[in-house]
Amino acid sequence: RDYYASRGLGDVYKRQYLRGQNKKRSQKATKYRAMINTLTSLRFIFALMVFGAHCYTIDKFFDTHFFKEGFVGVSFFFVLSGFIIAYNYQKKFSENKITKRAFWVARIARIYPLHWLTLFIAVALGNYVIASGAIDWLKHFLASLTLTNAYIPKADYFFSFNSPSWSLCCEQLFYLCFPFLIPIAKDYKKLLCVFLVSAILILIGMHFTPETDIKGYWYVNPITRLPDFLVGMLLFQLYDRLKSKNITAYQGSIIEIASIALFLAFYLYAAEIPKVYRYSCYYWLPVAFLLISFSLQKGIVSRLLSNRILVIGGEISYSFYLIHLFVLLSYAEWQKGSNFHIAWYISIPILFCIIVLLSLLSYYYFEKPMNKRIKTLLNK
Predict the structure, then answer these.
(1) What are the tens digits of pLDDT across the range 296-349?
(2) Looking at residue 32, what is its pLDDT?
(3) Which residues of 350-362 are buried (b: 16+ CB within 10 A; e: fewer)?
């Protein structure tokens, strides 16, 4: 009251002023949500691809290239992570509006609560880790607990307990490195040089790696997946230059359809490419084109992806990703010991609905509340 009284503003002008400010905030928030919505929906679509890649545990029908190549969804998540983190935080860091500590607290609150919950579920269920004894089991557990298991190039480590959590080890490294990449990211040429050098080294390393070791060194290892994150950061630099361009709805639609066509071409042809390259670098170009085309929000496909159902699917995609394999493997075990067999075209949709339901419950009643509590606790 004193503020408005000192400036001679009556109640009418006060209300008008506040409405104007709220309208500006609303417009900014709407613009922000619109951009995020499309990319959030894409998260759900790629989470479905990962789900399809694991359905071979239910039926041999899914043991084909078309479904098992769905691991590309993880590459998309890594590139998207680089883009979204740069979109949300690069300017804040550059203008000193956020500290490293506040950033890391937000990231810890995002990934750890559900990771620890699914880890303890895996411990309770048992049979999710291969260990030679109690001490060895404890080593596996501590590595998973601290998200360091993916640095150990042994499948019994990086796929122990809830195996999809290996990707969180990569995300943890990305978040740790991001504040230190900001000075480089201010000049996209420097960031591009860092990416190109790392990409060349990775290609050379991939060429000389034995087939039996490629997954441990080039698929799950956080250090060798860091270039995926750099691709996302570079894409944000490109987006920042393209967002103000006058692109028509027709042109935007052509770009979006072309990006989908390119991705499908790479995806379907992938069987001809050595798997070591498909684990990351092979998909950099199609994923980048797909992500940048939809981040611009100019075409008809973007409008379809802004559907509220798809957006909700994207919001629960993290829960979906960490929960889905529990359900699939539990059902597969039950089928082995049961005389009652259900056809995959019935069981898979039912399992999918169960996973979606569990993901919704997890997102609204565990993830979001725990996220707030941990932020409050650590920020004290």
Answers:
(1) 888 999 999 989 999 999 999 999 999 999 999 999 999 888 888 889 999 999
(2) 43
(3) ebbeebbebbbeb
Lowest mean pLDDT, pick from 2-16, 239-253, 360-374? 2-16
CA–CA separation, 64 and 44 (whole Å): 22
Segment 254-283 mean pLDDT:
94
pLDDT of res. 224: 95
**Nearest by Cα to 255 from 305, 318, 297, 309:** 297
Query: Are 236 and 90 within 8 A, CB to CB?
Result: yes
- What is the longest distance spanned by two Cα atoms in the chain? 82
248 backbone φψ class: left, alpha, beta (φ>0; ψ -120 to 50): beta
For residue range 37-48, list pLDDT tens digits in order. Answer: 899 999 999 999
Q: Which amino acid is at 300?
A: I
Cβ 52 vs Cβ 70: under 8 Å: yes
Q: Are 80 and 228 in contact (CB under 8 A)?
A: no
For residue 104, which amino acid is it? Answer: W
In this prediction the pTM is 0.88
Least-confidence region, from 22-36, 129-143, 315-329, 336-350: 22-36
- Rounded to whole angstroms, the Cα distance separating 287 from 264 reads 10
